[in-house]
Design brief:
Length: 839
């Protein structure tokens, strides 16, 4: 343990800081770091370098090269810079490289040097040029702040949703501020700048002068300022060599340190750990690194070569040409276990486990001491927690073995924390590998979340490792393996040196029917890369037609889209394609396409019936479908025409179409309708009233009701209405008029072709029994009983039924007999039935 703490450096009495090597950098840098623009992403992110010839007195003739490396120095991308002078580099939260040019244009590149997009910071920035720029991170995303040649600030808090804010002018500012930074307060980004001994805070509305509380006297200039990773604290380096530390709101002072160095530092960043009460700032000069805090002493390191500081959530990364190190405050659990002469329960448990491996009885003594104090659960938890904060696998294993050893003597210690820590450390050790180069700490990993880590592995195209992690952690397929395979497929379609057939086959073999994977999304990516045929092949594997069709339409493969829509059986989808085709093709080609697809043609006809009648007529004409064309003209005669002449003309066109279709019946019926319309118009002119659009029967009935019996009979003869139907019409009409005298005359005019039972029924329907009895006597023998029953003459109906000796008629009469009034009649029928049975 004594050797283990050799690199621990105390800062005051309550905190230790240690610096250990993450990687030995093997990158082949062509330039010194001091001659480059450098940007390193937080959370173990990549490093970007761009040689900066624009800062030299004589620009170099060769174009600079933009190089991107992993945190371990493994090259990820290299591209020749062909654009304008760059003022600043920075990484977004999505690990996109933002390159701020002198003209205010920001170029965005991917991790592998692929150009993504660009945007401008506005005309004012273009006119006045960029003096300096900062890329910062907020809860809304990544932002860019610009200082122009006019000494004005322009800011956008989120480059994903670009909204430029021109900050207020600083009064009396004639030259660039000595230092400035972005500060986020109350979810709003501000600019803090120093002009001589004065500090100004710029928000969207005003410029306010601010004064740090408790600042040492004699300050004539601020040389450097730094905001903590969480934007809660601020550090100011003055020309007197003092470093003031306080809250970012400048309302509270935490401490002040005199470093006795007045030269401006190259960099100054915060080094603090989440939930720690200690606050420290790391200051770097050419060959010196100093850690200062609320203590009279500082920690100093000698820098052998140019170095660059990267602030992190729980420490500071320091990299140079040869090494990449991590400087941080020693966590409480590690400090309690490893500090010299520690009697913490975790320290005793670690010693007990080591003695146990030596088969020494001291193991029992240590263990008893912990148990007597009742601190064994605390000891196990300390070892688990300390293991998470250790970088070297050997020390992690030692601490976890101690925790496992202690768990054996506890009855109800929940294993979740131990198992989870083992899983997390295995993941962390895998991504810390030199070839992966993501040196996340346990605290950073928990803050970043496993989903974001998987996204970053996918960005680096480390698909096998990402899938192994998903399977090891047993993540749901949709969130894990499926999502990663979809990203892999989208990358695969960009490999233009492989044939479309081979790419499509490889993707299908790998993905199969994996849930959560959309072949249409992959096909869309292929189409975006200019590989239309590959996109079509991939869509063959897409089971959802609703996803296939829109992309096929976008690719201008409308006929194939129509086939797919018809195969799906989704009429809405077919209509969508049809409307697209209608707008895309000329009328003739569109109709020819429909002729080859009967289902689509049928659906389009249905659509036209409700929306485009003229188009429907054109379809029938093109197909020589005279039957449907005739029906169309008949509907049109009623729907579109109001004048009788127009309707007759439309009906004549319909009749001609029916003759062409060899439908004689329809043609004759249409001609009859034309005659009826003309006759109805004449009747209206001569008699008045409403005759148009009545049916033939209704027209006859209306004439009878109007007293025009001769006209009705003439109409019946003209249209060959059968006698039976005419008698029914006249009978009904006269009964409705209650013209009983005319009805009686009509019944005697000649022998009724419908018999006289209908007369009885109609009269009873009009509740006129007197008239009904007149006709009951004239009813034929086969219907006599029924007529008598209708008029209520049960006794006579019984006599007729007995006379006819008809069993059915006698049963019918019996069903109409009531016990109180027709008892004698019922007995009479029963006797007649009994007598008939004897015979």
């Amino acid at each position: 343990m004594d050797c283990y703490t050799a690199n621990w450096n105390p800062l005051g009495d309550s905190a230790f800081y240690r610096k250990y090597e993450l990687y030995s950098m093997d990158w082949d840098l062509k330039e010194e770091l001091r001659d480059c623009l450098v940007a390193a992403a937080p959370y173990g992110g990549p490093i970007a370098l761009l040689r900066n010839p624009w800062r030299k007195e004589k620009p170099a003739s060769a174009r600079p090269v933009l190089e991107i490396y992993s945190a371990s120095g493994v090259p990820l991308a290299s591209l020749l810079w062909k654009s304008g002078p760059v003022v600043s580099l920075g990484w977004s939260a999505e690990e996109e490289l933002l390159c701020v040019q002198e003209d205010g244009v920001v170029l965005v590149y991917g991790l592998h040097g692929d150009f993504r997009r660009h945007f401008s910071m506005g005309n004012e920035v273009l006119q006045n040029r960029v003096l300096d720029a900062r890329i910062f991170h907020t809860e809304f995303g990544s932002g860019v702040a610009i200082l122009t040649g006019a000494h004005r600030f322009t800011l956008s808090a989120n480059v994903g949703d670009l909204k430029l804010r021109r900050m207020p002018e600083v009064p009396g500012l004639q030259s660039a501020p000595s230092c400035w930074t972005t500060v986020c307060q109350d979810r709003v980004a501000h600019i803090l700048l120093a002009v001589g001994p004065d500090l100004y805070l710029l928000d969207h509305a005003a410029c306010s002068a601010v004064t740090p509380p408790g600042l040492a006297p004699g300050v004539s200039s601020f040389l450097q300022m730094a905001v903590s990773f969480t934007y809660r604290h601020l550090a100011l380096f003055t020309d007197t060599g003092y470093i003031w530390m306080g809250t970012a709101s400048l309302k509270e002072k935490l401490c002040e340190f005199n470093c006795n160095i007045r030269a401006p530092p190259k960099q100054m960043v915060w080094c603090s750990r989440p939930r720690s009460k200690e606050r420290a700032v790391v200051v770097a000069w050419e060959r010196r690194l100093m850690v200062v805090g609320d203590a009279p002493e500082s920690i100093q390191f000698v820098l052998d070569e140019d170095s660059y500081l990267v602030p992190e959530l729980d420490g500071v990364r320091v990299f140079s040409r040869s090494t990449h190190e991590f400087l941080h405050e020693v966590p409480v659990a590690s400090e309690e276990i490893f500090k010299i002469a520690s009697m913490a329960p975790g320290a005793l448990l670690l010693e007990a486990q080591k003695e146990y491996e030596k088969e020494s009885q001291k193991a029992d003594e240590y263990l008893r001491e912990i148990q007597e104090l009742g601190q064994l659960p605390q000891a196990v938890q300390q070892c688990i927690e300390a293991a998470g904060h250790e970088h070297w696998p050997d020390m992690q294993k030692s601490l976890l073995r101690a925790a496992s050893f202690g768990k054996c003597f506890l009855d109800r210690f929940p294993p979740d924390s131990f198992v989870r820590m083992c899983q997390d450390l295995r993941v962390l050790n895998a991504i810390r590998d030199y070839h992966i180069g993501i040196p996340l700490t346990y605290s950073q990993y928990k803050q970043l979340t496993i989903q974001v880590l998987l996204d970053r592995l996918v960005l680096r195209r480390l698909y096998p490792l990402a899938i192994q992690i998903c399977e090891y952690l047993r993540l749901p397929e949709v969130q894990g393996v499926s999502r990663i395979l979809a990203h892999w497929a989208c990358y695969k379609v960009q490999q233009k040196d492989v044939s479309d057939e081979d790419v499509a086959r490889a993707i299908n073999q790998k993905l199969g029917d994996t849930p959560g994977v959309s072949y249409s999304d992959i096909a869309a990516r292929a189409y975006g890369c200019g590989r239309t045929e590959l996109a079509i092949k991939l869509l063959e594997y897409e089971p959802r037609s609703g996803e296939q069709v829109p992309l096929l339409l976008k690719m201008k493969r409308s006929k194939l889209a129509l086939s797919k829509a018809i195969e799906s059986g989704d009429t809405d989808l077919v209509f969508t394609v049809l409307l697209h085709l209608k707008n895309e093709l000329n009328r003739g080609d569109f109709f020819m396409t429909l002729r080859n697809q009967p289902m689509a043609l049928s659906l389009y006809r249905q659509f036209c019936k409700h929306q485009e009648l003229e188009t429907l007529k054109d379809l029938y004409n093109q197909d020589d479908n005279h039957q449907e064309l005739g029906s169309f003209h008949i509907r049109a005669s009623y729907a579109a025409e109001e004048r009788i002449e127009g309707r007759v003309a439309a009906l004549q066109t319909a009749a001609d179409a029916f003759y062409k279709a060899k439908n004689e019946f329809a043609a004759k019926a249409t001609e009859d309708q034309m005659r009826l319309l003309r006759l109805q118009r004449r009747l209206e002119d001569e008699l008045g009233g409403q005759f148009l659009d009545l049916s033939l029967h209704d027209t006859v009935t209306t004439l009878i009701l109007s007293g025009q019996n001769k006209r009705a009979e003439q109409l019946a003869r003209d249209f060959r209405i059968p006698d039976k139907r005419l008698w029914w019409l006249k009978l009904t009409a006269l009964a409705d008029l209650e013209d009983w005298e005319e009805l009686e005359k009509f019944s005697k005019s000649k022998k009724s072709p419908i018999g006289y039972l209908p007369f009885v029924e109609i009269c009873m329907k009009q509740h006129n029994k007197y008239e009904a009895k007149k006709y009951a006597s004239r009813v034929g023998p086969e219907q006599k009983v029924k007529a008598l029953l209708l008029v209520g003459d049960v006794a006579q109906a019984a006599d007729v039924a007995i006379e006819h000796r008809n069993e059915a008629e006698m049963s019918l009469v019996l069903s109409h007999c009531t016990g109180s009034t027709d008892g004698a009649t019922a007995d009479k029928i029963q006797r007649a039935r009994a007598q008939a049975q004897k015979k």
